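User: Please fill in residues for this 359-position structure.
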């Protein structure tokens, strides 16, 4: 089962990173997490260890700390388990915040990636899987989005992702053995079916699904539905929601592909199906039996009416496709939220196997 790989997972304690760790460990890989815990906590890694029955070594640190990265890569070499590929999740991700604090976003997301890539180059690590976003496409010229849709982000967060993609294209051009797989995520929601892992926003959520679950659990009074007059079948915004476990599995497929193929490759990770705000709320209430009080509100500035993926390239090239339904996403997301009203600050249902700080 083991493919003898040791993978560096930056941002592995975050929402998508933690779900991906479970899949990487199940596939027999060894992982090393680097996270500064700016939007997560080490308890997440205890949960991953508990679920996997495997050690989850981690280092607390920042990807912009180049000397720390050098130490991490060197230590892995000395242990005889060199890092062979990097999955780079670590980033800031709030669109509104990126408009207010662009320098912070470019520093964290772009300079952080530069620091990581430079150390990878020094240690001759040739495979990189990057967490990009459908937001790089901007206003759709046609739907569904295909990978060669124009790249025209409309906010600093999206620009930070597009800049890293460009940097990776240039790097692959210059170093023919280097492989960069950039995964353009659509709207990840839901949680691990065990109920042990999930999304844990520290402030009032910006995104629809965590807002719904916080309303349903009674922590927020009502969902504001941003706009009822879009050119969509019911007037509310349409997005391509994807179960976070499907998304996590897409990373395994990307890693495998990167073993055979060098160069820059971009893939949409979505389901190919659009769901409106009203449809998602109705599915959530039906599946969970929980009520979601809601009210109409003005359109959110910068929102587009509809966005969904053409996921056929990932299906054909990576042999990956999303399998979970909207109902699965609602059931799993609710299991996590209802069992953990305070996220990872809620006590664990059983004693965890501890993840180990690696340094
Ligand atoms: P998250 O905030 O839950 O996870 C990001 C993790 O990175 C956190 O644990 C945080 O502490 C860590 N981190 C941030 N900056 C760091 C730094 N400089 N050094 C070390 N660690 C750092 O976010 P997520 O939802 O899991 O997103 C993961 C990735 O996927 C991000 O790159 C994000 O931009 C991208 N993405 C997310 C979505 C989404 O809707 N969640 C959609 C598209 C793309
Ligand atoms: N939305 C909403 N109320 C909220 C949050 C989001 O009506 O509290 C709508 C939003 O206008 C969009 C959809 O839900 O049509 C998805 O928004 P989200 O922020 O989750 O994803 P993104 O817009 O970044 O794709």
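Assistant: Residues filled in for all 359 positions:
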């Amino acid at each position: 089962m083991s493919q003898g790989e040791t993978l560096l997972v930056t941002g592995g304690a975050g929402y998508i990173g933690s779900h991906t760790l479970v899949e990487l460990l199940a596939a027999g890989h060894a992982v090393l997490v680097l996270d500064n815990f700016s939007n997560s906590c080490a308890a997440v890694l205890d949960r991953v260890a508990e679920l996997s029955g495997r050690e989850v070594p981690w280092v607390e640190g920042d990807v912009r700390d180049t000397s720390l990265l050098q130490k991490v890569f060197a230590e892995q070499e000395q242990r005889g388990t060199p890092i062979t590929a990097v999955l780079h999740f670590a980033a800031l991700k709030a669109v509104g915040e990126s408009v207010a604090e662009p320098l912070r976003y470019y520093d964290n997301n772009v300079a952080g990636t530069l620091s990581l890539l430079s150390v990878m180059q020094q240690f001759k690590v040739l495979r990189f899987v990057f967490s990009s976003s459908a937001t790089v496409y901007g206003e759709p010229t046609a739907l569904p989005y295909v990978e060669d849709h124009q790249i025209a982000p409309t906010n600093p967060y999206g620009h930070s992702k597009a800049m890293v993609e460009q940097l990776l294209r240039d790097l692959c051009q210059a170093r023919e053995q280097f492989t960069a797989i950039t995964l353009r995520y659509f709207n990840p929601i839901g949680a691990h079916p065990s109920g042990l892992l999930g999304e844990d926003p520290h402030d009032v959520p910006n995104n629809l699904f965590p807002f719904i679950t916080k309303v349903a659990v009674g922590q927020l009074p009502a969902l504001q539905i941003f706009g009822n007059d879009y050119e969509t079948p019911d007037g509310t915004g349409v997005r391509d929601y994807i179960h976070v476990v499907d998304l996590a599995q897409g990373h395994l497929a990307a890693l495998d592909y990167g073993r055979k193929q060098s160069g820059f490759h971009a893939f949409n990770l979505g389901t190919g199906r659009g769901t409106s705000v009203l449809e998602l709320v109705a599915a959530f209430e039906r599946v969970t039996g929980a009520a979601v009080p809601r009210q109409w509100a003005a359109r959110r500035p910068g929102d587009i009416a509809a966005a969904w993926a053409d996921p056929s390239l990932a299906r054909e090239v990576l042999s990956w496709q999303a399998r979970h339904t909207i109902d699965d996403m609602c059931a799993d997301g609710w299991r996590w939220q209802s069992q953990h009203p305070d996220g990872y600050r809620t006590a664990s249902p059983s004693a965890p196997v501890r993840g180990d700080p690696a340094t």
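For context: The pocket of nicotinamide-adenine-dinucleotide (ligand 1) is lined by residues 10-11, 13-17, 34-40, 62-64, 89-93, 108, 112, 131, 133, 185, 188 (CB under 6 Å).
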